[in-house]
Each structure stands twice: as structure tokens, then as C-alpha cells.
Amino acid sequence: MRTYWGILLSCILLSGCGAETLNAIELRPLSSYRVEQDPEILLTKQTQEKLLTYCERRPTDVLPERRAMVAEVTFHHPLYEVLGSKTVKYFAAGDERYLTCANSNELMERTFAVEPIQAYEALEPERFQESNVVSTIEFERIDELKAVTSTFNLNETHEEVISDSVFRYKTPDTGAIYVTFETIRNGRTLDPIIEPKLYPFQSGENEGYVFLTRRADDRLTLQIGEASSLKQLVLPNIYEAPYMKVDPKEEISLKGNHRELMKRIILSDRPIEGDVAEETSLSLSKTYGTVLEIWGHVRRPVTNKMSTRPAEGETRLAVFESDQDTIWLDGPKTQELFDALSHIQPHEKTSTAVKIGDLHLYEELTEQSFDVWKTETELYLVDQHTSQSYELPGNDYFQVIQP
């Protein structure tokens, strides 16, 4: 038995029993950011790192309905806009303090209960005035279509805003509008044709527009959002028709505990006459052909569910720098490289290897850098932070580089 344990210990120490592999990816917070915040607020480097560290935890909280939003800061990648940004908001609710975090590619903010942060606690008392927020979205009818056309720079030759379809909305709290669609045709309700859509909004007072347009090819488009982030849903060809009328509903309020009919669109091969507001969709479809109902439902974040960060949508970047050139790996090559580094053989570089450059990995607001060494047949990476050396499997990542 003593001999057995001796052999086992030797295997462990010498890593000779089976192939040893490691995950070489150990992305670390960026050393610098481009910070966007109120000019009167000064955050030390330590405080910035503390905020970002909170954002990497697993969220377990939701914001109280009575609260004050004290401050907001957005961290941008200093070099590559494609890698996005992270927005952090600081809230006060009585003696409790909360952060919300959202990466630029995420649908929902994530919420964390935190210890008071002195840089924010020292701000003027007015920022800590609390108010009640509710899970309600209010829509206000807009008749001046030019305002929408100019706000979103729409080309009226190719895209016409449909009258009676334009509303300005306000969303006072974190969550999303869950939009579903029902099609009634010739007296019966069809199986779902358009996939439901989730339109998220962040904490605080958000304002934007929702409206319909008809494109030059006669297709309808549902558009919702702000000038900086307009989301579009082009409806299938089944909803093309020479005549169309939007049910002129004046006001809508989505209260968050049930879905509500937001808009009806009547589509027909012949003119649509008179007031359709009092007629049922079933009756209208028998007369004119097709009715599209657009339903909305406010959804609030739920602890450990809607608050969690999504599993997909992360943007990664790999950049190789040498004395001669800078190379940005394309999408598939970047994925291959990350896959290789997540299951790689540790190996000391040979004395004949020559340094040919530096490899920088980026994902959102994190980075990792390697020295790249090469012989005629091998490629080695040495982590600049840990000095751990790895042998990279043969690949043409840097095929333009000569040893």
C-alpha cells in the first residue's frame, strides 16, 4: 500500500500520469477605462474597481419600489468600442444601498445590495430624496409625425410613418415590455406567426417612441426605442395589404400584472370605412380579411431569473502586436483561439524560441496579455501577469509572421 501511494504522489508531482491541461484564460479588469459620469463626482481608482467587482457577483436582489437614484457612471473600453460598456447606478432606499449593473449587450440590469460607498454618500442630500416607482408604462398619442421622422432620421421616400400608430412612452422602472401578436383572419384566430419580443428598459425615467412604418416594399415595421437605440421588427409578408387602418386608441397604460391590447391593425384588399373602435377583431376580420392585434405586458426583474446576465452575446477580441504589424483576428479565429487557450498544455518555452510580439485578449471590460515566442515548429505564450508558459497547438493564427 505504501508503494501505491508513493507512485500516486510521484504522478501528481511530476505530472507524468496522463496529459495535464490548464485553462490559460484568466481575464483581468482593465487597467484603465474611459469613464462617463457627473463632472462633480470624483471616483478613485479603488472605488471604480470596487464598483466593477460588485458587478461580477451573482445578483440576488431587486430594487425596492421606494428609492432614490443617487448617481450613475458608465465605464467604456478605452480602445475598442465594439467591446461595449458597463453602466452602474447607485440607489438609496432608507439605510439600504443598491447597485444596478448592465453591460451594453445585456437585456436586463442586474441588482446588488451593497455597503455604502463614501464617494456617493458625500453628495448633496437632494440626491437622496426618495420617491415611489411603479411597474407601469404610460403611452401618449402623438399626431405630429414630422417629430418622429426627424428624431429617427427616417427617409420618407423609403419608409412612411403610419398615422394613428405613434405614441411616446415613459417607463419609470426596471423591466421590459413583453409584446405578443395575435392574427385573426376571416373569422378565426391563426396559430402564432410572429415570435413574441422582449423590449427591455432600464431603471429610472426612460422615454421613447413606439410606431409603425410602411416600407417601400409594402412591408410593415414595428419600431420602439429612443433616438440612440431604436429596435425594429419587420412583419412577415402576410401583413401586406393595399388598405390598412390602425385602431385609433388614445391612451394605453400597462400596469404590470396583466397584458393589455395596445394596438389593432386592420388589413384589407378594399377600403376600410367608418369607426372600427367598437367592433370586435373577429367581426372586422370577417368583413375585411385580416386583423393583427399587438398585446403588451410589463415584466419586472425577478431575483435570480430576469436579473441574471445572459449566457450569450459576449464580444471577444484578440489583437496581436509586433514591431512590424498589428493583427486583429477575425471572429472564427478569435473563437478558435479562446477555445484552444481554455484547454491548453503548459510547457516551458525552449531556449531557441524568439519573441515575435504580444497577444492581447479582450472581453467586455477585461483583458489579458501574453508574450508570444516562436521556433520553426512551436508557438509559445507566456502570461505577462503570472509568467506561466504554454505551448499553443499548431495553427495559422499568426500566419503572416515569420520567425
TrEMBL record:
Under the heading PROSITE patterns, the entry gives: PROKAR_LIPOPROTEIN
Domain of life of the native organism: Bacteria
Q: What is this protein called?
A: Lipoprotein
